[in-house]
Structures are given as structure tokens and as C-alpha cells.
Design a protein that fits this description.
This protein starts with a helix and ends in a 21-residue tail after the last strand. About 40% of the residues are buried. The protein is about 40% helix and about 20% strand. The strands form 4 sheets. Strands 7, 8, 9, 10, 19, 20, 21 and 22 form an 8-stranded mixed β-sheet that branches. Helix 8 runs parallel beside helix 9. It is an alpha/beta fold and about 550 residues long.
Length: about 550
């Protein structure tokens, strides 16, 4: 038996096994993801419909012919709504007893929508987010199921092919030849059996085909037109869906107007500013070459708190400004549960493709949030550095985790003050240009020690600076999501939302100036003149400074 024959036989075997096992992999795959505010399990079916199973409440049945080919369908088993990240919290038992006394004293970590009614409102907002921007959810489902299907398929092909090859090796060529002679001339029997099996499978699929859906009129004129509701869910779907749809419609109309105003304002925005951190000094240029500033442009946002409407604004500003990267100061989510990964997904989808992006964990995020960001290609600062268009950013995660009803808990063994000192020590041992940290107080020791020249942060939900602190300069962004304390963040704004455009001198790696884009609850958009970053001041020349005693977070 030649090597070529053995190779050909092996390839044929793998192809046959792959063809046979693909349906098994396709219909047995399950992906544990999210659905709105819920945990959910997804599985592919052959009934040409999307089935959302709410358990005892009933099912939502949606025709899937326009979305899935070959009569395929999708079943979604709805689970619980995670409140505080059970998996993470279980591993930090007693963390609430170890929280920072200072954090509790100054009230810096207030819950946003901490009551039960606000939590229900957040669930409605999450459903509305799913309804308004479904592509992020679709991408998550496709990625999750594809990964699971390919893993199962590869495992089945490897196992079955391995067993067959092993048996062939054990039997040897003589016994294999005997088996071949015994089966020779019986091809028709094999073909007949295969035909019977295929016809039986097709007949079973036809006979078990579900009855046509009876469309619920509540969905007329919506993306769910033609859907049917079964069980007790039918009794509440009108009111519940109307609430979600009204929320979604109001949200879309609000931000459609904001984006239209932003585009009108953009062409008349203030264009004055410095060529470099040395002032209005254009770089040398030839006679036929127009002067061009050698700068990097970064869009900086913080405290989005799952406001997907403002995520659209972030994406628009990043595109219109020609940003070289997007920088996020944390608190993309409201509590950091796995279901809220959707908040980051929407922001990720709104940003221009291939735009570099980096983030630090805020106190309203979790390690689940930053792990998901890594899987989406974000650079996550975890007591580490990352280069964005040649500028080196250094930072680390907020040690706290703020959840509904229980206030800030510690995700590490360090309090905020202890972590601030640890970060300062690490800053002194690293070479970087700009520090990115969620809470300005945690970055303050690094500025005072002179180990950080510049820092960007958020957390306070009000803008500060750029101003000198110690021997460095800090800039604190206000909330990009318009997150008002003790109010629901997603939806039309309840307070001003801000986004910053930051320019950095590529030669010195020092920030030059910043321009703030403000969106107000009345849908107006304001683009401020450029604000110049002051130069760092030698520590000996800096008078004593005190921190504010109470800030939002």
C-alpha cells in the first residue's frame, strides 16, 4: 500500500466524517450568552423560526426565514437577570466589610439607579437597547455559536477519524483487505440504506414541521412583525412591548436629532489651537508644501454607563475628527454583569473599523467587562502600558465594584488608597507619556510624586482642568453617558454629556490641548474652543493643594 494511497484514503475519510458530523455539530451546539438584561442559552433548530422561551410565562415565536438560510431556526432559553455578578462576588466573600472607609465617608461611589424600581427601569432600557441596536447582539450570537459549532465539529472529526485510523492500524492490511472483499459488490445495498436514511430524515422534518405562526397585532409595524406569543406572556406583551418600543422610539428620535445638530455644528466649530505643545509654531515646510501639525488626535470618553445613544455620538465624533485612537476612562456598564457586555459591544460597533481603542476598568465595570473588551480587540490597562499611535498610556483598574443596592465592594485586597500608592510606585518604575485611570484620586499620588506628568480620568461626572496637580497635569472628563446620580442613564439625556478631543504632540508626546463636545438634554450640541494644557510645574514650585471631599462616581 503506497504512501499516496494512504494519504488519499485519509483525506477521503476526513471529508466523509466531516460531512456526516456537521449536522450533529450544528444542531447540538449551545452558546451561553445574553438576551437584553438576561442570561440566555442559544441553540440552532430546523423549524425556521426564532423561539424565545421565557419558561412558565410562555414563548415569543418570530419567523426566521429572512434571517436564517435553509429553514434553520434559533431557540433562546431565557435565564435569570444577573444583578451583581454572582461568579465574581462569590470569590470575594466579605469584600463589603473591607471597603475603603474614605470611599464611604466622602460618598464618592453613589449607585446609579440603585432601587428596585430603577433596576426594572434599567431592564426596560436594556430591552430597548437590544431593540434599537440589534447588530451587536446578532454579532455576539453569531460569534458564540460559530465558535461552539466549530469546536464540536473539529472534536467529532478528530475523534471519529482517530478511532477509524487506529482500528485500521490494529487490524492491519491483511484483515482490511478481507473486510474489503467481503463488502465488495454490495455498494447498492449501502447506497439504498443511505437513501432510506436521507428520505426518513427529510420525511421526519416535513411531518414535524410546526404549524404556521399566528401573528400578534401588537408587533405590526415593528421589526417583530409576524411574531406570535404563547402562554401567559401573551397577556402582558402588549403593555410590556409598548413600553419598550416607546422607550426605543424616544431614544432613537432624541439621538437622531443630536447627531443632525452635531453635523451642522461641526463645520463651524472653533478651529484655533496650538501647532505643538510649544505654542503656535508651525513646523518647517517646503515652498510647495502646506504646514501640517505633527499631532495625534484622541477621542476620550468616560462613564458612558451603557447609554448606547451617546455611543452613536462617540462614533460620529471619532469619524469626523479623524481620530487616531479612542481612549475610555471606564464605567462603560452600570454594574459589570455579563449581560452588560452588550454595552461595550454597541460602543465597539459604533467606533470606526480598525480604530485602535483602549480602556481601564471603572468601579461600575468588572473583570468580566475588561475580559470581554480584550476578546473584542481592546487594549486593557491592568497596571500596564499600551502604545496608541506612538503615545504610551499607563494605568490600571479601579479596585472597587459598585453594584445595585450594596454600594462599592472591593475586587482586590487593596483599598482605593492602598491601590493609589501601589500604582504610584509602579508609575515610578515605568516609562510612559500619559496615565489613564478611572478615579482622579487614585492617580493623584503619581502626579504629586512626579512619576506621572499627565493623567486622564473620569468618575466624578464633572469636568476638571486641564490643571496642574503636584508636579503634573490632570484632566478629568465629565460623564459621556450623561449619567445623573440615582437616575436611569440609558435613554434621552437627563444631564449634560461630554466627550473630549485631545491632541498630543508626536515629537514630545505631551498633550497640547483639548476640545469638549457637550450634548445637552434639550438636544443642543456645543463644541468649545480648544483649551491648552499647562506645562508640568517642578514640585518645589507648586503650592499645597487639597482634594475635593465629595464627588460623584
Amino acid at each position: 500500500m503506497s504512501a499516496r494511497w494512504r494519504t488519499s484514503a485519509l483525506l477521503i475519510l476526513i471529508a466523509v466524517v466531516a460531512a456526516v458530523t456537521l449536522p450533529w455539530a450544528l444542531f447540538s451546539a449551545r452558546a451561553d450568552l445574553s438576551f437584553g438584561p438576561h442570561e440566555a442559552r442559544y441553540q440552532i433548530t430546523a423549524d425556521s423560526r426564532l423561539t424565545v422561551d421565557f419558561g412558565p410565562l410562555g414563548k415569543l415565536l418570530v419567523p426566521a426565514g429572512e434571517y436564517l438560510p435553509l429553514g434553520l431556526g434559533l431557540t433562546v432559553d431565557i435565564g435569570q437577570i444577573p444583578v451583581s455578578g454572582d461568579k465574581e462576588d462569590a470569590s470575594h466573600a466579605g469584600a463589603s466589610e473591607r471597603r475603603s472607609d474614605r470611599d464611604l465617608a466622602d460618598g464618592s461611589d453613589q449607585d446609579f439607579g440603585g432601587g428596585a424600581v430603577d433596576a426594572l427601569g434599567a431592564d426596560i432600557a436594556s430591552y430597548a437597547s437590544l431593540f434599537s441596536a440589534p447588530q451587536a447582539q446578532v454579532d455576539e450570537i453569531v460569534d458564540g455559536l460559530t465558535t461552539e459549532i466549530l469546536a464540536r465539529w473539529a472534536l467529532a472529526v478528530c475523534l471519529i477519524s482517530g478511532v477509524v485510523v487506529s482500528m485500521a492500524f490494529i487490524l492491519g492490511p491483511v484483515r482490511l483487505a478481507g473486510i474489503g472483499r467481503a463488502l465488495f459488490g454490495k455498494e447498492l445495498i449501502g447506497i439504498g440504506l443511505a437513501t432510506v436514511l436521507i428520505l426518513a430524515s427529510v420525511g421526519t422534518a416535513v411531518l414535524t414541521r410546526p404549524e404556521p405562526l399566528v401573528a400578534d397585532p401588537a408587533f405590526d409595524g415593528t421589526p417583530l412583525a409576524g411574531a406570535q406569543v404563547t402562554g401567559r406572556l401573551g397577556g402582558v406583551i402588549d403593555a410590556g412591548f409598548t413600553a419598550v418600543k416607546d422607550f426605543s422610539d424616544d431614544n432613537d428620535a432624541f439621538y437622531d436629532q443630536v447627531l443632525a445638530t452635531l453635523r451642522n455644528q461641526w463645520n463651524t466649530r472653533p478651529l484655533t489651537g496650538n501647532w505643538s505643545d510649544q505654542g503656535m509654531i508651525p513646523p518647517p515646510a517646503g515652498e510647495n508644501q502646506a504646514p501640517k501639525a505633527d499631532v495625534s488626535t484622541f477621542v476620550f470618553g468616560s462613564d458612558l454607563h451603557c447609554n448606547i445613544g451617546m455611543a452613536r455620538v462617540v462614533g460620529a465624533v471619532a469619524r469626523m475628527s479623524g481620530a487616531d485612537a479612542y481612549i475610555d476612562g471606564g464605567d462603560v456598564t452600570m454594574t459589570g454583569t455579563s449581560a452588560e457586555n452588550y454595552c461595550l459591544d454597541v460602543l465597539d460597533d459604533e467606533l470606526p473599523d480598525q480604530l485602535p481603542r483602549t480602556i481601564v476598568k471603572g468601579n461600575h465595570d468588572s473583570t468580566e467587562t475588561t475580559n470581554h473588551a480584550k476578546s473584542q480587540g481592546w487594549k486593557v490597562l491592568e497596571n500596564s502600558s499600551a502604545q496608541m499611535n506612538g503615545v504610551t498610556f499607563f494605568g490600571g483598574p479601579d479596585p472597587r465594584r459598585t453594584v445595585f443596592g450594596s454600594g462599592p465592594q472591593l475586587e482586590t485586597d487593596l483599598t482605593a488608597d492602598q491601590y493609589a500608592q501601589k500604582l504610584s510606585d509602579e508609575a515610578c518604575a515605568n516609562d510612559f507619556d500619559i496615565m489613564l485611570i478611572h478615579d482622579p484620586r487614585i492617580g493623584a499620588p503619581s502626579l504629586r510624586s512626579g512619576c506621572a506628568k499627565y493623567s486622564l480620568s473620569g468618575h466624578w461626572h464633572r469636568r476638571v482642568g486641564p490643571e496642574t496637580l503636584g508636579s503634573g497635569v490632570r484632566y478629568v472628563s465629565s460623564t459621556t453617558g450623561g449619567a445623573l446620580a440615582n437616575a436611569l442613564t440609558p435613554g434621552p439625556l437627563k444631564m449634560d454629556a461630554e466627550l473630549s478631543i485631545l491632541r498630543v504632540d508626536n515629537r514630545t508626546k505631551r498633550p497640547i490641548d483639548v476640545q469638549i463636545v457637550t450634548v445637552s438634554p434639550d438636544k443642543t450640541v456645543t463644541i468649545d474652543p480648544w483649551r491648552t494644557f499647562p506645562a508640568p510645574v517642578p514640585l518645589i514650585a507648586q503650592p499645597p493643594q487639597s482634594e475635593p471631599t465629595s464627588e460623584n462616581g
